[in-house]
Amino acid sequence: MKELNDLSPWVHPKAQNWFYALFRKTNIAMVLDDELQKPEGAISLDRMRMILAFGILLGRDEMWPENERATLKAILRRARQIAKLTPKSKLGKPLTMAEHQAYNYKLEEFKREIELLSRRLGMSNRQTAIDPPVSWQPFWE
User: Fold this and answer.
1) Which tens digits make up the pLDDT trace of 88-135?
2) DSSP letters along 26-76, please?
3) Domain ranges (residues) in the chain
4) What is d(CA 109, CA 135) in angstroms, rounded to the nearest whole number?
5) Tell me, what DSSP letter sits at residue 100?
6) What element of type H or E holds 120?
7) Are 38 and 58 in contact (CB under 8 A)?
8) Residue 25: how many CA atoms within 13 Å on its side-chain side?
């Protein structure tokens, strides 16, 4: 049972009911599922990071409806697939060293984000602490 002094906004029953109603009215899970059904290569790393961020921000046990947990697992599965893809140049040419460095930096952030959702879903085997993604810092400031 949750502590009575837990002030997290998502723990309050009225807030949970409001969020569940919003979830049903907007069909958020269905929209995400439709996006995740696109063929390989149709979802860019940047778009997948946004989908993953949505899962991280709203995928808490107390918020995300239990009957829609499969969507969060699908987000995680697709993110892991995209993380394994080799980077491609937009012009079909090999990436420059600078492009490789930028891509690798973004990929490391992406992997941290994947780990955050993995832990939230109890699907991580990692035992050590993980630093939060650096790119998220401005969001919280």
Assistant:
1) 777 778 888 999 999 999 999 999 999 999 998 888 888 777 777 788
2) HTHHHHHHHHHTSPTTSS-HHHHHHHHHHHHHH--TTTS-GGGHHHHHHHH
3) 13-86+98-140
4) 7
5) H
6) helix 97-120
7) no
8) 6
